[in-house]
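Minutes, project check-in
Item: structure for the 51-residue chain
Input as provided by the requester:
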Amino acid sequence: MGARTWKDRLGEALCLVALILMVLLCVWMGMQALDRQAEIAVERHERNHVR
């Protein structure tokens, strides 16, 4: 492995961007799931009070 070319750097940059996007996607999906869980809990709570 001698001098690093721009192609090597470009490949690393793309890998890094892909990794960051994956992490952001996972975080976003987790937030969506938490929101849904909270909504379900609130609905159950309201139903219990109606009775």
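Outcome recorded: DSSP finds one helix and no strands in the chain.
No further action items on this chain.
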